Amino acid sequence: MTEYYSTITGFFGNSNPEKLLKEFGSPLYVYNEKILRQKCRDMKNLVEYKNFVPNYSIKANSNLSLIKIVKEEGLRADAMSAGEIQLLLHAGFEPEELFFVPNNVSESELKYAVDNGVLVSVDSLSQLELLGKINTGGKAAVRFNPGVGAGHHEKVVTAGKKTKFGVNIDCVDQVKEIAGKYNMKICGVNQHIGSLFMEGDSYIEGVKSLLSVAEQFEDIDFVDMGGGFGIPYNKQEGQKPLDLASFKEKLTQVLEQWTDKYGKKILFKTEPGRYIVAESGVILGNVYTTKANYGNKYVGTDIGFNVLARPVMYDSHHDIEVYRNGKPLNEAETEEVTVVGNICESGDIIAKNRKLPVIKEGDILGIMDAGAYGFAMSSNYNMRLRPAEVLIKEDGEPTLIRRRDTFEDLIANFNI
Ligand code: LLP
After folding, report:
1. Domain boundary among 260, 276, 292
2. Are 68 and 196 members of one domain?
3. Active site includes 344?
4. Are residues 40 and 14 in the same domain?
5. Which of 71, 73, 69, 77 is nearest to 33 (CA)?
6. Which of 14, 239, 257, 323 has its CA 20 to 30 Å from the CA of residue 169?
């Protein structure tokens, strides 16, 4: 085992995993404010270009306290649904700081955005028609599909010839025609080619392709290059983070050259979700069982796939730390185990055949880098309560930022 990430980063502040579970219950999402703020700053410094702003993509984690911190750091935000718009307005964002990037939505959802003054990006020609009827004489953005995508798993590749997203890049004339029909200004273009890249070149290629679409419009105000910035999920085996310094140099050059050619210093945006929150979050859970079934050693926890779906959904790797008596277990002795949750499906596996320190019942596990698409994708499957969420504030003190579900929450919507 390599060093413990949580110890190096001081992740748990003045507390420790044992105290946290005792106070707030298990399983538990824990976030670290310092790390969150640092990630926001990294993204704000992504390019040297002056007219640039990242939009946090709140689908990755929509906890209100975290969103407010992201806002304080000066980011704007993306929404995927009317619910996300409502939450962002509630968090204090101005409508003009928001960008609605939905796909396949109803007229009433589009109308909700327009009525609230939020700019919409449409994902198809027919949605552009629909928006034209609602927002005649107004503004619209268009999400293009450059024909190539990227991502850590085929389920999260969001551009290319085999995905549902975006308008084909050879449809610019049709876009202009529909916009003209409704006297709408196309004020921006956007794309999102997929989630999680670890080297910047594919992203920059995608940006170049989007810019070649952008320049076919006479008067756009912004280009939104999308999200997808990866984080190293496998630090225990030495995976390195994105090289932001070299990325910055290359991307800045592309943007400067292009705006010189376009003749206008337009606004550039990105849509990071994972990068902002993934490393700011850990999920803690108890080990209740260790057993050997036909030679396979299982470690049974309360972290089922209702709590963290990523390993089951995408075979995703998350580093695991083991704690005993409040401290990381720095045992030299390791063994190969399969770490499982408490859901009644045999696919409920957090880590398969993973080499970990020898774990005993009563130990605590920390599933690292769980801040993005962790709680956001959790559910009440098996009538389990979604966990509480706690924030380790900058002064090191833990504070509850969402309470655990209750039985009353589970039955609240039944019509008896
Ligand atoms: N913009 C759009 C239009 C998106 O669809 C997404 C993510 C993002 C931005 C943010 O992407 P990010 O920077 O977080 O990669 N549940 C999956 C990831 C799904 C991503 C969906 N779209 C996972 O856990 O890996």
Report:
1. 276
2. yes
3. yes
4. no
5. 69
6. 257
Q: Ligand 1 in contact with 227 (CB < 6 A)?
A: yes
Joined together, the tokens standing for residue 137 give 């004489």
| Residue 376 structural domain | 5-30+278-411
Residue 382 pLDDT greater than 60, yes or no: yes
Cα–Cα nearest to 187, from 227, 257, 135, 253 = 135
Out of 213, 242, 276, a domain closes at 276
Is 0.90 exceeded by the ipTM? yes
Which protein residue has the closest C-alpha to ligand 1 atom 19?
Answer: 156
Ligand 1 center from residue 158 Cα (angstroms): 9
What average pLDDT does the segment 104-128 reach?
97
Residue 416 covered by a domain: no
- Cα of 195 from ligand 1 centre, angstroms: 5
* Contact (Cβ atoms closer than 8 angstroms) between residue 26 and residue 342: no
Which residue owns the Cα nearest ligand 1 atom 4?
192
Same domain, 70 and 26: no
Task: Write down the pLDDT at residue 149.
Answer: 74
Contact 58, 85 (CB under 8 A): no
20 in ligand 1 pocket by Cβ < 6 Å? no
Residue 1: pLDDT over 70: no
Taking the CA of residue 152 as reference, the ligand 1 atom at the shortest distance is 25
